[in-house]
Amino acid sequence: MHSRSVATFVLMRFNVEFPGYEHLDYNSVEWLEYRLKLAELTSFHSLKQQTLKDFKLLVLVSSATPERIVDALKQATQGLDVILFQAESASPRNLSSTLLENTDAGCMAIQTSRIDSDDMFHPDYLRTIGEYYGNARR
Predict the structure, then answer these.
(1) Mean of the per-residue pLDDT values of the chain
(2) DSSP for 101-121?
(3) Partner residues linked to 2 by β-bridges
(4) 122: which residues sit within 8 A by CB, 6+ positions away?
(5) pTM metric for this prediction
(6) pLDDT digits 0-9 by tens, 16-33
(7) pLDDT at residue 22, rounded to an integer
(8) How many helices (H) and strands (E) does the chain have?
(9) Residue 27 CA to its chain's centroid (Å)
(10) Which has the closest alpha carbon to 77: 127, 104, 111, 117?
């Protein structure tokens, strides 16, 4: 991770239930293919363009996600350091332990940002947040 011992994670809820949206079929192949295409054009594209390359993308997926969608998700995120995390809700209980398990020993802090599958970050977003965090700790 960063030389200043900060681990950077970007979190994305891909197809986990979200309060208030229980009526949606999060595992419909048609809906998942649409969301995946949208993510390729927006969020995955913008993450691949980040000037800060030292980050991990943690994608929350339902355990009911069809295997072909999981494979397509892996293909769409090639070039990124991705962790596919099985979760049944938008706020999984063991998320903190997963972040810690994927953080280098000696890391002093974990910095997280969240992105939706239809969002984009400015190319300097993660670097700017990291610089702010570094300045705020002094």
Answers:
(1) 85
(2) HTS-TT--EEEEEE--TT---
(3) none
(4) 46, 128
(5) 0.85
(6) 876 666 666 767 899 899
(7) 67
(8) 5, 4
(9) 18
(10) 117
Predicted confidence at residue 99, as pLDDT, reads 86
Biggest distance spanned by C-alpha atoms of the chain = 49
Q: 């993308």: which residue's tokens?
A: 57
For residue 72, the 8-state DSSP code is H
Q: What values do phi and psi take at 124, rounded to 5?
A: -100, 10
Residue tagged 């239809």 (tokens):
118
Confidence check: pLDDT of 53 > 80: yes
DSSP code at position 20: T
In angstroms, the CA 24 to CA 17 distance is: 8
Tokens of 3: 């030389």
Tens digits of residue pLDDT in 76-105: 999 999 999 887 655 666 778 888 888 887
What distance lies between CA 44 and its chain's CA centroid? Answer: 9
Tokens (6 digits) for 9: 């994670």
Contact at 8 Å (CB) between 49 and 125? Answer: no
Residues in the chain: 138
- pLDDT for 3 equals 46
